[in-house]
Each structure stands twice: as C-alpha cells, then as structure tokens.
Specification:
single chain; 260 residues; Ubiquitin-like (UB roll); Rossmann fold; 2 domains; 9-stranded mixed beta sheet; 3-stranded mixed beta sheet; 12 strands; elongated
C-alpha cells in the first residue's frame, strides 16, 4: 500500500514583489560598499596642480600645506569617515591663486586632489603701492614673489580705484573687464598692446608694437568699433601714407580716425 502523498504548494511571486526584492538587494549592496569606503584608510595624497597656462603661483607643497593647515592635521592614516572632503576643498580654495579645487578618493584608498590656478590677464601697476593682477574671472589678485605673469600692463592714476575690489562686482568694473577680455582673447591685439595708461577721466592711451604712433583710444565705450577702426588704420592708411607719417591717431570720436 502506497504512502499518502503530501500536497504540493507552489508559491509564485508577482513581478512587483520580485522588483522590490531586487531593489532592496541593490540598496543593501550600496550600503555595504559605502561602509567599506568609509572604513577605508587614506593611504597617500596625490596632488595635481593645473598649469595649463604655464602659471606657477602655487605648487603641490602649497596645496598640501593648505589642506593640512601647515601640517597640523594628519590626513594620511585617517579613516575616510573622519575626513570632510568638502572642508578640504574649501581650505584649498581660500588661496587667491586657486580658482577651484576637487578632492575625492579612489577605491585604492588614495586621496586625489585637483587644483586649478587662477589665470591673470592683466597687471595693475602702481608706483607707491603693491601691484595687483586681474584674473580671467575679473578678480583682483595679489602679486607673487614666486612668479611673474607676462600679461598686459595697466597704469595711470585710475588704477588705484580699480584695485579696491573685484572688477566683476560692479558695473564700471565689469565693463573694463570685458575690454581686457577682448584684448586677451584676440591674438592680434594681445600681441600688439603691451601697456595701457588710464587717465583720471577714464580715457586710455597706448602704443602698439607694430608702429610708433600714440593711440588715443578714449574710454571703453564702443571698444569693439574702435579696434575695428584702428585695424583699418594699420591695414589701409599706414601702408599708403607711410609708417612714420603720423605721431598720433585718435579713435575717441565716433566713426572717425583722426591722424596727426
């Protein structure tokens, strides 16, 4: 006589339940990985300083000093759960020559640091006080004893008022910064203009390397049109009249090129 068979029950999970289980497993895995990363210890610090424009205001040792507050904080050997990466970035970015910083760690336990330097595009020259740089973001930067950037020089009595705050922070400063950016981004004018002198009323004068004429540029208003007229002067007028014919060219009057 055969033994009675036990009834069989089939459990069929719905698709929604399967998805929920899979999602839960993913979250558990992520939590496990995050815990492992948090418990991981910093093995070493790898610092990369961006020198795209060949500026050498800071180096890796400067960044290390900023991160560790001059060696007071010990990062190597510390668990990542005790290291505030954003706080380290803020420490580095306090340096005026650092535009931004990124701090993160890899699976091997290395702390990776990327620091991008500020880029000067002009230097404000003063005779009785320290000079300063204008960055490509319109910031006023101090000069450095370590490195001197070869940039456009700005001199004259108006420089003292320009140096008090970032050019990007007020209307007149932004307009002048746009003018500097235009020169810096134009290969021809950036090569031709080495120094600009600003008078008390904001009018500017300069010489170019291509000729000996004094260029009376006027204010920054309509600067693009003025540069177009100056280009006409060099390409059309001087080749016909002679490169030594004039001592002065004025662009101050709208639509005119006044040569003397």
């Amino acid at each position: 006589m055969k033994a009675p068979q036990m009834p069989r029950f089939k459990f069929q999970l719905s698709r929604q339940v399967k998805v929920m289980i899979m999602v839960g497993m993913v979250f558990v895995s992520i939590g496990f990985v995050e815990k492992r990363q948090a418990d991981r210890v910093c093995n070493r610090i790898v610092i990369q300083v961006d020198n795209q424009y060949e500026n050498f205001f800071i180096d890796e040792s400067d960044v290390m000093a900023l991160m560790t507050e001059g060696g007071k904080d010990f990062i190597v050997g510390s668990a990542y759960k005790n290291i505030d990466l954003r706080h380290l970035e803020q420490r580095i970015e306090e340096h005026r020559f650092i535009q931004n910083a990124e701090v993160f760690h890899d699976p091997k336990g290395n702390l990776l640091v990327r620091a991008k330097q500020s880029r000067p595009i002009a230097r404000l020259v003063r005779s009785h006080a320290p000079d300063a740089y204008v960055s490509d973001l319109g910031q006023i930067l101090p000069v450095s004893e370590r490195y001197t950037a070869r940039v456009l020089l700005i001199s004259g009595s108006l420089v003292d008022s320009l140096i008090t705050r970032d050019l990007s922070s007020y209307r007149r400063g932004r307009r002048f910064f746009e003018f500097l950016e235009y020169i810096n981004n134009d290969p021809f004018w950036s090569a031709q203009i080495a120094q600009i002198d600003i008078e008390p009323d904001g009018e500017m004068n300069f010489y170019t390397t291509v000729s000996k004429q004094l260029v009376e540029f006027g204010t920054v208003e309509n600067y693009q049109d003025k540069f177009q007229r100056l280009h006409i002067f060099y390409k059309r007028i001087l080749p016909q009249k002679g490169w030594n014919e004039y001592e002065r060219v004025s662009l101050k009057f709208k639509g005119q090129i006044v040569c003397e």
